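Interim report, section 4.2 (structural modelling).
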Amino acid sequence: MKNSYLADITRGIFQENPTFRLVLGMCPTLAVTVLLKNGLGMGLAVVAVLTCSNLVISSLRRFIPEQVRIPCYIVIIATFVTIVEMVLQAFVPTLYAALGVFVPLIVVNCIILGRAEAFAGKQPVLRSLCDGIGSGLGFTLGLLLLSLVREIFGNGTILAETNYAVQLFGLNFEPMRLFAQPAGAFIALGLLLALTNMIFKRLQID
Amino acid sequence: MPDFKRLLIIVLTLVVVTAVAAGLLAVANMLTAPAITRQQEEEYRAALKEYFPQVADFKTETLEEDAFDLVYDAAGELLGVMVTTAVQGYDGPISYNLAVDKEGKILAIRIVEHSETRGVGDVIEKPQFQGQFIGKSYLDPLQPGEDVDTISGATISSSAMIDSIRRVLAVVAENFLRLEKEEPFDITAVPDGTYLGSGEGRSGDIVVEVTVAGGKITVIEIVEHGDTPAYMADAAAIIPPQIIDQQTLDVDTKTGATESSEGLVEAVLDALTRALNPEEGGESDEE
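Predicted structure of the assembly:
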């Protein structure tokens, strides 16, 4: 049994990584990953929402009638997103300002509804919890990799706007601004997808 | 009947789920609201410090719905006013701060909260829109298309802001800075007739007789004055023709005879004002 819980977590991170394998939730993925800080904040917000919504949806799965399951899921997800939004606004206002409209948009992040439909609506509570954590972490991993690449090339820094900011190439470095922009997001994502595809093929995980 | 029962279950489930969600949100709101308010106050203080670097103290006054923070420096001198107000935008209220210096000029606009369309109405937050207001005062018309522009595609959001800023500026100037706007005198409202009026010249009063016909000033005659004749002659040569030509009291004064010129304008304004308010004197006002 224990093995199966662990498998639920690792599956979300690797075999069914939302960003690199399922290619879900691309809108926030592309939009917020300008800086590592934003990617991490968004990722953790999704972990929180996904874990809570999976937990609740799974425990209510016997009570929610088939016909109205989607509206119920959306209400549950929206509730958690709003709570996360309030908490961010109250305690981490800079992150709240940086993430902007993408926090409320977690409601329609397809990973969350996707996991609710594909997993939490059918599986027991604990497994759904593990799946939520795993998929959330997988999404966070995707955001972190993408924002790391984009921040290094687009800004010449790591962890800018935090207490641990590192200036990589000296002050005279002229960063490739393209990577901080939407077009650069697509390019960086494409390259990362190619790279992860190659790795997965080599390791024959797929 | 089973159909009805199933329907009932569906409805009840939705009701219960949404009710519980609403309850949870109310609790979350209660827990986070104080922290959010504190956060916003801190941001407001920081902005105040940025717009009025010498700020040492401020006093809050409210007028209708708006809050006015009168900002003072360490010596107790008024530096300006920071207004907190709101206006109905395209999609809900836009709340913002307007920083005005002691001359009634706009120092900064700070949008606190809005729900305008992202990428369209949120232009009100950007320098492209806000920049055109900086340095403008209650003396400027602040009319869309005249001295400030609305942003195409975001007409409702931007014209709401323009109207609100114009209103707030006037309130600040009038109530807190004691600055008064001279309304351009509406000559067309004056009934036909001949009116006397007086103004203060360099030495003594200047009395003029103004004839209005068809909503226009047709004749300005100087009845008496105590100024040096040469100066008054200079002023009389330039002021009345300008007023009659342009039908406005906003005219250039004669260099070297400023006081006589201004006295003349004042006397004409006095005559017209009396014409509009006959109970205070008026047509039969003879010396």
